[in-house]
Amino acid sequence: MKEDNKLTILVVGAGGREHALVKKCLSSPLAGRVIAAPGNGGMAAEVDCFSVTVEDVPGMVALARKEQVDLVIVGPEIPLSLGLVDALEAAGILAYGPFRAGAELESSKAFCKDFFARHKIPTADYGNFTEVAPALEYLKAHPAPIVIKASGLAAGKGVIMAETEEEAICAIKGMLEGGDFGQSGCEIVIEEMLFGEEASIHVIASGEDYVCLPASQDHKRAGEGDTGLNTGGMGAYCPTGAITPEIQAAIEESVIRPTLAGLKADGIDYRGTLYAGLMLTKNGPKILEYNVRFGDPETQVLLPMVAGDLVPVLLASAKGQPLPDNLDFHAGAAMVVVLAAEGYPGSYEKGKEIDLPEAVPSEIEIVHAGTMRTESGSTRTAGGRVLGVSAQAPTLQEAADLAYEICDQITFAGKYLRRDIGHRELKRG
Ligand SMILES: Nc1ncnc2c1ncn2[C@@H]1O[C@H](COP(=O)(O)OP(=O)(O)OP(=O)(O)O)[C@@H](O)[C@H]1O
Ligand SMILES: [Mg+2]
Q1: What string of DSSP letters covers 166-207?
Q2: What is the pLDDT, as a whole number, of residue 157?
Q3: pLDDT for the residue numbered 412
Q4: Alpha-carbon distance 256 to 201, whole Å?
Q5: Cα of 191 to ligand 2 centre, how many Å?
Q6: How far is the CA of 359 from the centre of ligand 1 (A)?
Q7: CB atoms within 10 A of CB 253
Q8: Rounded to the nearest 5 degrees, what angle is found at the Cα of 51, between the Cα atoms of 352 and 275?
Q9: Which of 189, 290, 301, 327 is the 20 to 30 Å CA partner of 215?
Q10: 55: helix, strand or coil
Q11: Whose CA is nearest to atom 21 of ligand 1?
Q12: The predicted structure's pLDDT at residue 153
């Protein structure tokens, strides 16, 4: 902490999620200096960015030390799974995010499923396999449709929804013998296919203490009507009517609290974000997966909904201290629409000049994802998901109208967006 008692905060990552975190930190009265590594074009226009990659744990620790950082906020899962928070703690630097042991909930789906089983948390039936023969045996006993998953991190691509036995065998052999997904596919999870509506709940945890953020939903598919290839996410919104107060209570009761108690019982001191991906089945909510960090693009709608300062909450979590009972949220809803590069998630071009509106209303945030800032100060495309436009309004329809109005004012060659973000919720009325 510096003489003025204000914090120097380092945000680790380069996507829309991290830009949203930077913006939230900049609005905090506790924050003195905010920096990012490696950052992107949007972050570079607002804060100092340092070219340390998210995989470079020693480099990140050295940067935090050199810049006298008081709090590191880790965005993506990779540095968490590499033990960045452990390394920072060893260096005496406070960090928001789980230690490596907790991050395993995301970095090993096999570990996560065994955790659910051990603590009786409702989830799809499953088996974990490292050899083809027992996997095929399991398949015989549990015929398709079935889900085959690479256990390790696969950037959202390691899940095969096999409709037929043939597809299932192909996925099993591809991962265990064919090297699909590399090291991440050396162990697989085969699990029951669940049916229902999907929704997510993010909690900020500090041991067994937690606070919930509004329930959200996202759109993973590239095409309108939720068709086409899977992407990192083309848009998101919150809250969602799919999670009524009763369902929320049931999820906290049967999933969230048993998870935090289970982690504690297993000797894991869990601090940071726990992002529960849920399937609302006719037999009640079941957990599909945990992520151990904020979602992208969910963060771009969750943070604007937080009415007060989030930094004290992140700080308390990082220190393992008690959290407030509740957070205050704005009334209404938020939506983010992702502007992608034509061709994404397949191949796409980079380096296109981006023209942004000079000023936007206060309810709007233009969040950068795959962008870079040139020496002359112009902004160019540098990734598949380029920008997100997030809007906060009294209703989701108004948020959508506002967001799309700004989306139409942004130009770059090959701009692609879905026009139907929020369709399920908007139809729910
Ligand atoms: N058992 C299941 N039944 C039905 N659909 C499933 C099941 N498991 C996964 N899915 C579908 O596949 C998607 C991705 O699965 P999962 O969340 O386990 O993978 P992931 O690669 O960790 O994804 P993310 O990038 O969202 O973290 C889910 O959002 C869901 O739509
Ligand atoms: Mg995941």
Answers
A1: HHHHHHHHHHHTS-TTGGGGSSEEEEEPP-SEEEEEEEEEET
A2: 85
A3: 98
A4: 9
A5: 15
A6: 38
A7: 11
A8: 85
A9: 189
A10: coil
A11: 156
A12: 92
Question: What number of CA atoms fall less than 13 Å from residue 211's CA on the CB side?
Answer: 18
Q: What is the pLDDT of residue 353?
A: 98
Length of the chain counted residue by residue? 429
Q: What angle do CA 385, 390, 394 make, to 5 degrees?
A: 155
Q: Give the pLDDT score at 2.
A: 60
What DSSP designation does 254 have?
I
Which numbered atom of ligand 1 lies nearest the CA of 149? 18
- DSSP of 206-252: ETTEEEEPPPBEEEEEEETTTEEEEEEEEEEEE--TTS-HHHHHHHI
198 within ligand 1 shell (Cβ under 6 A): yes
Cα distances (angstroms) measured from residue 236 to each of 141, 163, 252, 310, 429: 37, 27, 22, 20, 17
Paired residues of 31 in beta bridges: 7
Structure tokens at 193: 């296919």
CB-based contacts of 125, cutoff 8 Å, min separation 6: 142, 191, 192
So what's the pLDDT on residue 35? 98
Q: Which two tokens stand for residue 226?
A: 């939720």
- Using one digit for the tens of pLDDT, what is the confidence trace for 31-76? 999 999 999 999 999 999 999 999 999 999 999 999 999 999 999 9
For 95, the enclosing helix (H) or strand (E) is strand 94-96
Instruction: For residue 232, give both structure tokens.
Output: 């990192």
Q: Can you tell me whether residue 158 is helix, strand or coil?
A: coil
The helix or strand, by DSSP H or E, that contains position 150, with its residue range, turns out to be strand 146-150
Alpha-helix runs per DSSP H in 1-76: 16-26, 41-46, 57-66
Residue ranges for the chain with pLDDT beneath 50: none
Residue 149, classed as helix, strand or coil, is strand
Domains along the chain? 7-99 (3.40.50.20), 131-186 (3.30.1490.20), 197-319 (3.30.470.20), 333-428 (3.90.600.10)
How far, in Å, from the CA of 330 to the mean position of ligand 1? 30
Q: How far apart are CA 162 and CA 144, in angstroms?
A: 7
CA-based nearest residue to 129, from 145, 114, 144, 107: 114
- CA 93 to CA 88: how far, in whole Å? 5
| Signed CA dihedral, 163, 251, 107, 211: sign only | positive
